[in-house]
Amino acid sequence: MLLKIAAVLPMALLGRFPWWRLSASLAYPRILMYHMIAHQIPGSKLNKWRIPPQQFAKHMHYLTMHGWQAMTMSELMSSDTVPEKAVVITFDDGFACVYDYAMPVLRDLGLKSTHYLLSHAQDNAWDAHKEVKRESLLSEKQIDTMLASGLVEVGVHGQHHRALVDMGYTEIVDELIISKETIEQRHGIQCLSLAYPYGAWHGAVVMAAKECGFDHAVAVKNRLYQPKHDHRFAIPRLTMDGRRSSVLDFSLRLAKG
Predict the structure, then answer these.
(1) CA separation for the pair 91, 179 (Å, rounded)
(2) Are 48 and 66 a contacting pair, CB within 8 Å?
(3) Is 86 helix (H, G, I), strand (E, B) or coil?
């Protein structure tokens, strides 16, 4: 029995931790993708997207203690030279718990972040088929307070979290331009950054994003962004998984991608 455990354990560790991979160059920016900062709910299908607040705080303190420089997505994409140890902290969907648990930590540490919001949604109705608890999204007042901090960029994530790849071209343009203009007018800002719902895109989606006035767009891909090789409308990010959110997990993710 012990021999069987010994044989299986190394493979389990290989899957659990990417320690066996070489550390990646610090010249590559780390773009982190968070969703909810909230306590895990036993048995919930959404726990992958819930980073416990205490773990999130440890992530952010790790960044500051190890000299990582937080930028917004638009700052990164407009920079002629990207500093080593550049990190972009992004949040998808605009969950209200981010205001309660993430913003106090980010504000105290002076860390910038980019938040991708939905223009016509009040909760995560797109997850209704999973029979999970509905999670509230940020209110207009909360968003304005976040913007007033000077540390927050707001980007666009669509109107209702519909997959753009399931739409025709005209519908994609309508989806993007309405969400972009609604958020811009509502908060008196300019939105240059787009996050594709579900991280899904194809050529027509990219063409529509450009037509609607976006400067760049983020996807998922779960790897490091390489500015000289990756298309600015298909920028990869690193998923922050609530089931694997220890400081060890986080440090390895930063180091190795």
Answers:
(1) 17
(2) no
(3) strand
Q: How far apart are CA 188 and CA 192, in angstroms?
A: 13
Handedness of CA 248, 250, 254, 257 (dihedral sign): positive
Kindly list the structural domains of the chain, giving each domain's residue range(s) and its CATH number in brackets, ordered by start.
22-256 (3.20.20.370)
Q: Is 3 left (phi over 0), alpha (psi -120 to 50) or beta?
A: alpha
Length of the chain: 257
pTM: 0.92
Residue 20 confidence (pLDDT): 60
> Pairing state of beta strands 86-93 and 235-239?
unpaired
Q: Per residue in 197-238, pLDDT tens?
A: 999 999 999 999 999 999 999 999 889 999 999 999 999 999
Q: Report the C-alpha gap between 132 and 146 in whole angstroms.
A: 28
pLDDT score of 8: 45
